[in-house]
Amino acid sequence: MKNYLPIGPHNPTEFEKRIDVMVITGVIIGLFIGLFIGLIYSGVGFINFCIFGILFLVFHILEFSYVAVCHPESVSFSSFLLTHSNEFLLALFFAVTEYWIEYFFFPNLKTCPYIYIPALIICVIGQGIRSVAMFYAASNFNHVIETSSRDSHKLVDDFIYKYLRHPSYFGWFYWSIFTQFVLINPICILLYAWASWSFFADRIPYEEATLYQQFGKQYSEYMSHTFIGIPFINSVNPPNLKTLDD
């Protein structure tokens, strides 16, 4: 079977479950958000890097908040998703490195507001769609694909889910790519687009196959009148888990 679960499953350690660890992490994130806001108001030349920092940190605060509210039994430091994979950390390293190298040589090109302001708007919309979808689905959404059914698991097919089959993925896909437009990182725009698309091209068909196993015809009918919204990711209706595993 392919690795369709880059985010999990994860069994948090006792250290990660400690309340003080989670509180301190939240405080540190809040302090950095405040620092970036202060730098913006001070008029630094790298405003868009500060905006990226705020977008990045707010994303992780909201991911933690979702787990704390909707899955309190499993909340831990790992719920921030700050260190969920080596690929994630490597992507962040590349983004920051590219920005500062190019900023050193082309400072005027790296801070063009006609690029990063529209990108910021798209990021905010993408983040909003993801967060609203997650909180609306409540415990029916999970960072980890659920391969077995549970009595409390319901198929959410109204509100934003009436149109988008995976609104949280839709929002994150565009948020991820346009954070690199905020940084005006031409190389990472391409890398993030490829990495994000590849991730969902594997994950979505597999997740839909597991959902079809759980909900059967109900999910097949749901698929027929909703869309994914991520280019070139095709769904087979009804999905076949065995075919994907092969």
From TrEMBL:
Q: How does it sit in the membrane?
A: Multi-pass membrane protein
The main location class comes to endoplasmic reticulum
The record's listing under InterPro entries reads: ICMT_MeTrfase, PPMT_MeTrfase
| Enzyme Commission number(s) of this protein | 2.1.1.100
Q: Which GO terms describe its cellular component?
A: endoplasmic reticulum membrane
**Subcellular location per the Swiss-Prot or TrEMBL entry:** Endoplasmic reticulum membrane; Membrane
Q: What class of enzyme is it?
A: transferase
A GO molecular function held by the record = protein C-terminal S-isoprenylcysteine carboxyl O-methyltransferase activity
- Biological process terms in GO annotation: methylation
Where do transmembrane segments lie in this chain?
21-40, 46-69, 81-101, 113-138, 172-195
Q: Tell me if Cytoplasm is a UniProt keyword of this record.
A: no
Q: Does the keyword S-adenosyl-L-methionine apply?
A: yes
Superkingdom per UniProt: Eukaryota
Provide the reaction this enzyme catalyses: [protein]-C-terminal S-[(2E,6E)-farnesyl]-L-cysteine + S-adenosyl-L-methionine = [protein]-C-terminal S-[(2E,6E)-farnesyl]-L-cysteine methyl ester + S-adenosyl-L-homocysteine
Kindly state which keywords UniProt assigns to this record, in alphabetical order: Endoplasmic reticulum, Membrane, Methyltransferase, S-adenosyl-L-methionine, Transferase, Transmembrane, Transmembrane helix
Q: Which family does it belong to?
A: Belongs to the class VI-like SAM-binding methyltransferase superfamily. Isoprenylcysteine carboxyl methyltransferase family.
Name of this chain's protein: Protein-S-isoprenylcysteine O-methyltransferase
Species of provenance = Entamoeba nuttalli (strain P19) (Amoeba)
